[in-house]
Design goal:
The complex is a heterotrimer of chains A (285), B (713) and C (158). Chain A is of the alpha+beta class and 285 residues long. Chain A contains twelve helices and 14 strands. Chain A is globular and about 65 Å long. Chain A starts with a strand and ends with a strand. Classes of the chains: A alpha+beta (285), B alpha+beta (713), C alpha+beta (158).
Amino acid sequence: MNCYIPENLTEALEIRKKTHAVPMAGGTDLMVQAKKGIGINPAFKTPIMIISYLSELKGIKVEDDGTLVIGSLATSSEIADDERVFYPIRKAASLMGAVSLRNTATIGGNIANASPKGDLPQPLILLDAELVLSSIDRERMIKVDDFIIGAKKTVLQDDEIIKEVRIKPVKATHYFYHKIGTRKANAISKLSLSILADVEDGILKDFRASSGASGDKVKRSRDAEMILIGKPISEIASHIDEFTSAWDRILSPHAMPQYRRESTRRMLSDFLIKLSEGAEPGIYE
Amino acid sequence: MAATHIDDKIRRSDALSKARGEAKYVSDYFFEGMLHAQMLRSTEARADIVSINLPVLPDGYYFISAKDIPEQGVNSLHMIGDDWRCFADGDVRYVGETIGLFVGPSPAVVKSLVDNTRVEYRPKESCITIDDAIAVKGGSLLDGKDDDIMCQLYCEKGHDMEEVFKDADMVLTETFETGFQEHVHLETNGAIVTEEGDSYVIYISCQCPFYVRKSVAALLALPLEKVIIRQTTTGGAFGGKEHFPDVLAGPLLVAESRIHKPIKMIFDREEDMEFSVKRHPSKITYKSAIKDGKLIGTLGDIYYNCGAYLSASFVVLQRGVFHANGVYDIPNTRLNGYGMATNTFPSDAFRGFGAPQTLFAIEMHMTHIARKLGIDPADFKKSMFLKKGGETVTNGHVVEEVMLNEMFDNIAKESDYYRKSREFGYGTGRGIGVSFYNHGGAFTGNGEQAIIKAHARLKKTGNKVTIETGSTEMGQGFQTILRKIAASTLAIPMEDVDYPNPDTSVVPDSGPTAASRSTMIVGRIIERCAQEMKQRWGEGDFSVEKEYEHPDGFPWDQSTFRGDAYLGYGWGAAIVEVEIDKRTNEVQVKGIWTSHEIGKAIDELIVHGQINGGVIQSLGYASMEKMENRNGRFKQTSMSDYVIPTSMDFPAQYYHIQENPYPYGPYGAKGMGELVFNGADAAYCDALERAIGKDIFKIPLPPEDIEEALRNA
Amino acid sequence: MLDNKISFTLNGKMVEFIGDPLRRLIDTLREDFNLIGVKEGCGEGECGACSVIKDGKLVTSCIIPMGAVNGADIWTIEGIRETELGKIIIEAFADGGAVQCGFCIPGMVLASYVLLKDKENPSELEIREAISGNICRCTGYDLIVESIRLADERRRNA
């Protein structure tokens, strides 16, 4: 047997533990990787478990403390259409692939696939999102940033399934999200960047950035961010070069390095200049 | 029902069946007991084959290769030359070359047989780029030669160029490069071979059923009529199904001669992208003499990368050279064209057929000269337009009134060109660009008379009329155009005219559906057939067949390439406006305005659709469609790697059609399918270079390549 | 646990599939149910030619395994072309010059159907977004966009 179709989470976790079958949600990555051609069934190297029917992994909800919980089977369309979802995630979901792909692809799949070009891990890492990983024996929480350890590499154990994504509300006054795609729609990311800033009484209380498609995984650096955090807005302009240079050092783009580095630097600088000039709170692209 | 008039707004005859999903493309045919085939292909660019180690073939599975070609047959696909082999034998010359065909009932098993075959090679140094070929890397690929020049020609007029350069105020030398382009017809290549009586029948997605027949019959030493080609509804072609279907049909025919069961082979997208013909990459250098604000002479060296076999490359190169001075009256010129053999997949026909490369280069060159002279590019170009009677690069003459001024005025007004040109300036992030172009209609020179001699036929049965021609519908609307011409001439309703997909055992050879010749040449023959049929309408059931008639007064010498290269030209003008995000080099096209002179639009809605589609293909070519070849292997092998425009990439277009009836075409119509591809790329690049403030010398230019242009300039 | 028997609704009728749950939906539709209006353009969910409507949403049938359609409500062009809105869209495509080679068109009709069923008077941008996953190499999209607008107009005036 090379394909299992469990009907509830417990059943799925039992199968997972016993067979290590790879969970397949929307199939938008796995079905393509395994395709063999017209009229030929895809060939998988491992047993597969179709998890589409697990209602425990569906839906989006907000808990009392404001924590956003996105079931791992939530599709990009569902995420993009849900106003409760924090802006960079919603925006990234809305720009992921084609309409039909967004109707099928899931957040869990996008994280587990761990492609450096994946759309959702980048804003999730910006917001310090955590995953709940379930197995029949235990449940554990892990930051998305710690879960993905490299291109196509995660720390998912062979008895685990991603159950949900949890994101605590983050205080922010300014958001920036930009994806450079291979074209204007239905595009794979060439480069993406999210920024979050929280300005209070003229002080930059929080500042975060994350870069997608800029290395083997999403790039973030709290050290670099600390260069700006706590600074008065009036002083930001004088730290832009220091910050962008520090940021540049964490990037490791494989292809088109010059373009990816320079575009990132210019986007960061442009945003910081706006911020230093007292840009209104809101959303920037 | 009322008789159809040529200017009526009508519905395409194939629209409903296609939109309802009823039209049958080749992959939609399923025959009883049908087998499936897949190619075993070369994985080396240039190598000797040491051995082919086949897996054990289960019962009912076959491996077909060169050894299956009978003794009296020849292992070659006859195109324009005979060099392209049906099956590689002894050596391979490009990645993807057909070595053999696995055939059997289960596609999955067939695929596993391909995957489990080990071909041992002795690799040789390969030659991939034009520069490699100029350096004869790895030794000549051509039998008996010491260079890699597969084909060449030159054209000249006026004075000796050395004298012209001495006389010049300024000499400017620039080199331009264009890349591969993949057709991405939404329907991939595919064919089915079977037998009927003592004939072979090939159902195939193609432009030119008679090309396929001619190409494959000699494999089995068959008389042509023993191979019947039935064109199936063709889901886009753009030149990619002009000669390339031969490469599928040949091996299938050989397999059929051994197996005698229906055999189907449909490429999946990855195969179709990685292992199919492409537009010729080019490297074009112009050295130009400028005097008193005019371009007085061009010396052009035009290199096209032809790949491993000739296919249509020499004709493509000729068209490139013949269009190399654009729409301009340049008194002195010497244009050298070289088609270079390399170990890439053979390059072949693609909408424009060699003209887009040189037209891009000359347009950018003209733009750069204008900027050096401090003149608006539009004004400089306008000052150099060819006029009726003007001499072409082949010492021929322009036969029609050239209406580019009127056309430009129309789109300049619509786009507010001059104001924007002034206000945007140079390097401000915004730009508006302009290009002018033309396209010679139909076959080069006297080809229609000397090579093809097209025939077409009308058959009357009761009050219904059937069109019988070898010309194909591939999406361009020809089945509707021809019906409209016939119905309008016969003064009957279009619904009473039928035009089934051609079957070579039924229809006469009307020549290939290519070269923007179908409306102009075959349309005219059908018009003449209809005129006669109308006269004789009362005679009961009968047929009228006519042969192409060459108009007088178009001298041509094919051995020297002198004379009137074409029977007439379509003309175009394009304006494109862009805005660039200076942070990321992302380009937003803000407006597209075009005007095309095509004689007359037989059907405005169809022409409108052709313009829109051609322009977007050209903008894709200039911007996002990047196909790289590394060591003989295409790097982009899927529709996510090789991206073509979506509905979101470009805004709605303004279009203008300039009427200028052409005396030798039906109702005054000329060719237009390729013309509309020929110029938007250069208008885009003009706009882009104004926006970024740097000159552009190559396409495509995705954002990362704009970064390069900014750094290098 | 579900086994290799998959039941679903296809163009309004209950049907059953027995076989490898990893078989692609497109192969089942084309080869087992003879629904040839579902076209394979890319095999990787990129081009939209194989679009079908699954539970009211546009999806690409080339990357959906049969095991994921149990209980689903699937519509292909063969079903949609018999609906009121489907007919209006198809007629508008024919009148508006949306069809050239036709290979992308069944998918394009389905994308239009999903847009128009929920939305009256969509803007040009909304139309372009709705069909942005359906690649067309022939038309440059303008006349498809116009035809969708025409269908919407006719539907509203009907």
